[in-house]
Amino acid sequence: MSQLQSVEVAEMEPLEAKELFMKYSKLKAVSQETEEEVDAIVGELGCLALAITLAGSYVLTTPRLSSDIRRYLPEYHQRRQILLNQKPLKLVHQYGESILTTWETSMTAVASQTPEACPILTLLAFLHFDDIFLDLFIQSETDETREHQDAEKHKALLQSIILSAKPFDIYMVEAVFRTLQSYSLVQWKQDQNSYSMHKLVHAWTYARLDRKQRHSFAIVALQLLAHIVSSSKLDPAYKTRLIPHLMANFAIISDIYHEMGRDGEFILGTLHKI
What we know:
By secondary structure, this protein is mainly α.
């Protein structure tokens, strides 16, 4: 694969996704309850064509699931990486790869082209997957001492995770997101004036981390949000945009808090500031 080649995974319309799942699962005697469960499955998979094909094929070849489709989502939540790492039985996707292999290939290319993009993508796993606006990463500076100091702390925090001698500024942030978009790891939403991640890319980005990495990035994301919230210049609309990111981060923190030892005390102190 060339360095600049994009690895894109096709997203479908909900009805198309449902029909694709039914085609590959070959479910019999479909009731309204079954249809509702299939709707939930394709929604959880984000209408991603390859993911839905893999899920349908897995159900077809697993009698335990084909006899009771309600069992699929609980198993998916427990074994997501294993299920997504399967390869399709037929060449159902232009790359013929598992989903995880496809994204790992993209990540390798991203690291080669724009090394700073990899830690930023990882950081996104600790925020919400939608409405990722650039002000999360670059705070405006003013002549006021406090705002200037806050902006400098914000940049220093992000500089600490990218491990690059290049200055962390708007030009770096734009370059990072251009690269991530070129490999279909994020998408630009014109109506929101922000980026979004597919929910499976978002979940994969988190799942590929070890425990130490999860702890480190959870704390950085929390500090990042705390810096923004503490700003005295935020208008109500801006604060509303922050809520999904805060909730997503809190959900992760609550899941791993008991593993964090002394870092847990630091987290409590940071939460108190928000």
